[in-house]
Amino acid sequence: MANVKIGDVARAAGVSLGTVSNALNHPEKVRPETLELINETIARLGFVPNQGARQLAGGRSKMLGLVLPRLDHAFSLQIANGAQDEAREHGYDLLIASAGNDDILENHYMRYFLGAQVAGVLVQPMAGRSWKPPIESTPIPTVYLDVHCKEPGNYIAPDNEAQGRLMLEHAISCGAKRVGVAGEASFMQLMLRVRGICDAAREAGIEVELVGRGEWNTVADGFELGRELAARSEEDRPDFVIGLTDVLAAGIIEGLINGGVSVPEDILVAGCDGNPLAWSGSVPLTTIASPGEEIGRRGVRLLTRIIAGEEQDDVGQEMLAPMLLVRASTATSKADKANADQPELDLAEYL
Fold it and tell me: In whole angstroms, what is the distance from residue 46 CA to residue 3 CA?
């Protein structure tokens, strides 16, 4: 692997050195079919670009890499904070890259970290309806975050199915008889939350209305759904609404209020993903306690154990059990009001 040069890749792929260089450093400049050919050649030959990273005496790098899909969601920010704090405790520096929800950039940053000779890499892949690990295994320890996978590898994720189940159980504890679930289950994590909600509702004999509309990260979609619910008669609308994300739930609350319906007096509303960036609405939102920082910390702990030879590679799936964060949007006489009665949360604690 170490003897493979960029010229070997160019010759094997039948392209120029400049084209290979662009594929490595500026993939947007290369035609998709050419980029695919070069990437396949790189994987086949085992080429690793050398970014000239410095290593400590003894040849072992004290750097870790972290590839995130984007930095506009609190979960990814929490992962970064938790991973950085844990890496520092283990004597490592952490290099962080945001792929901008672009799989080409994600692959580019993975190759960059390999070339930088980092000791290991953490990856939070882009969200999708399904996910499988790369066909070609990476030559350094790699831990994937926020994915559910049964194939051999190292995966750490919040238990999204349990999140949905926990929120439905909370709805029951609040006396709910008809539960609405808002949002399009457009990727794996949301699909698992819906499954948990529906399974728990079926076991309890609770009626569930699935409103399969609303982009996960769009407050305006939640607002429109809230307005639609407010326009229904009291007998025709849910008495408890679960937004598949906190962003949607926050929008639903504002839409309901705008339509003349009070939260929680008329309808109870909860989120499901613990996103503090969505907690600035008029009614404090019940949701799942933010798990991102612990995901980042556990990812680094596992990675450093594998690097040190204390843990076998391909550990498998580890999932974090959710914790409920009860706040004013579901506070009723039947619910525990302890958290809802506390002063407003300091969001800095969650970011």
Answer: 9
- The pTM of this model reads 0.79
Q: What is the pLDDT of residues 46-79, one digit of tens each?
A: 887 664 533 444 456 789 999 999 888 889 999 9
> In this predicted model, which residue has the larger pLDDT, 1 or 160?
160
Cα 58 to Cα 62, 89, 284: the distances in Å are 11, 21, 53
Residue carrying structure tokens 């457009």: 186
pLDDT value at residue 341: 45
- The CA distances from residue 15 to 8, 37, 107, 218, in Å, are 10, 10, 20, 43
> CB neighbours (10 Å) of residue 186?
16
CB distance 66 to 99 below 8 Å: no
Give the integer Cα–Cα distance in Å for 43 and 48.
9
Q: How far, CA to CA in Å, does 145 sit from each of 66, 69, 297?
A: 10, 11, 11
Query: In terms of C-beta distances under 8 Å and separation of at least 24 residues, what long-range contacts does 330-338 make, across chains too?
Result: 330/170, 330/171, 330/174, 330/240, 330/264, 330/268, 330/269, 330/270, 330/286, 331/264, 332/174, 332/175, 332/264, 332/268, 334/173, 334/174, 334/175, 335/170, 335/173, 335/174
Pairwise CA distance, residues 76 & 202, whole Å: 33
Quick one: tokens of 279?
Answer: 């907690």
Structure tokens, 316: 């498998």
* The pLDDT of residue 12 is above 50: yes
Q: How many beta carbons lie within 10 A of that of residue 46, not counting itself?
A: 12
Closest CA to 241 of 173, 166, 167, 335: 167
- Burial tier of 184 (Cβ tally within 10 Å: 0-12, 13-18, 19+): middle
Query: Where are the extended beta strands (E) located within the chain?
Result: 63-68, 93-98, 120-123, 142-145, 154-158, 178-182, 207-211, 240-243, 268-270, 287-288, 316-320, 324-325
Tens digit of each residue's pLDDT (9 = 90 or more) over 233-291: 999 999 999 999 999 999 999 999 999 999 999 999 999 999 988 998 999 999 999 89
